[in-house]
TrEMBL record:
Protein name: Ribonuclease P protein component
Pfam families in UniProt: Ribonuclease_P
Role summary: RNaseP catalyzes the removal of the 5'-leader sequence from pre-tRNA to produce the mature 5'-terminus. It can also cleave other RNA substrates such as 4.5S RNA. The protein component plays an auxiliary but essential role in vivo by binding to the 5'-leader sequence and broadening the substrate specificity of the ribozyme.
Name of encoding gene: rnpA
Signal peptide span: none
Superkingdom: Bacteria
Lineage: Bacteria, Pseudomonadati, Bacteroidota, Bacteroidia, Bacteroidales
Organism: Prevotella melaninogenica DNF00666
GO BP field: tRNA 5'-leader removal
Catalytic activity: Endonucleolytic cleavage of RNA, removing 5'-extranucleotides from tRNA precursor
HAMAP family: RNase_P
Keyword line: Endonuclease, Hydrolase, Nuclease, RNA-binding, tRNA processing
Database matches in InterPro entries: Ribosomal_Su5_D2-typ_SF (IPR020568), Ribsml_uS5_D2-typ_fold_subgr (IPR014721), RNase_P (IPR000100), RNase_P_CS (IPR020539)
Assembly notes: Consists of a catalytic RNA component (M1 or rnpB) and a protein subunit.
Gene3D superfamilies in UniProt: 3.30.230.10
Molecular functions per Gene Ontology: ribonuclease P activity; tRNA binding
Length: 141
């Protein structure tokens, strides 16, 4: 993989309120867990998805959201550290799902990583769990 493909650009981050509502609101999403992370994902069709506007579907075939609830870490420093670790692990291993989604035309994959633990973990453990989740998602789509 080339260097410029290993970036995590703004277009690869799930920011659109409509897409987030599509991922969590309506049915059709799937979830899997590799403690301390839970991944919620949904493969949407760009042509037939009526609830999502055309502006929201542009940037990337795979979009990612990382959520660390305030319930688990009261201090923002710890929440930001965990989000940074998860984003870095995803950036390194995103090719597992990106290649599968690129094979399918007019499809977009939305993934949300949600932190479940009350404790901080080292980056190696988080990277293994994210890699595991991405491989399992890649097999199912």
């Amino acid at each position: 993989m080339e260097k410029h493909e290993e970036r995590l650009r703004k277009g690869e981050r799930l920011c659109s309120k409509k897409l987030i509502d599509t991922l969590f609101g309506t049915g059709g999403s799937h979830a899997m867990t590799a403690f301390p992370l839970k991944a919620v994902y949904r493969l949407i069709d760009n042509k037939t998805e009526t609830s999502v506007s055309k502006e929201a579907i542009v940037e990337s075939k795979v979009q990612v959201l990382v959520s660390v609830p305030k319930k688990h870490f009261k201090r923002a420093v710890k929440r930001n550290r965990v989000k940074r670790q998860v984003r870095e692990a995803y950036r390194k291993h995103k090719s597992f799902v990106a290649l599968r989604v690129n094979e399918q035309t007019d499809k977009q994959l939305l993934i949300a990583f949600i932190w479940l633990s009350n404790e901080l973990m080292d980056s190696v453990t988080i990277e293994q769990r994210v890699c595991n989740l991405l491989q399992r998602i890649g097999e199912r789509i």
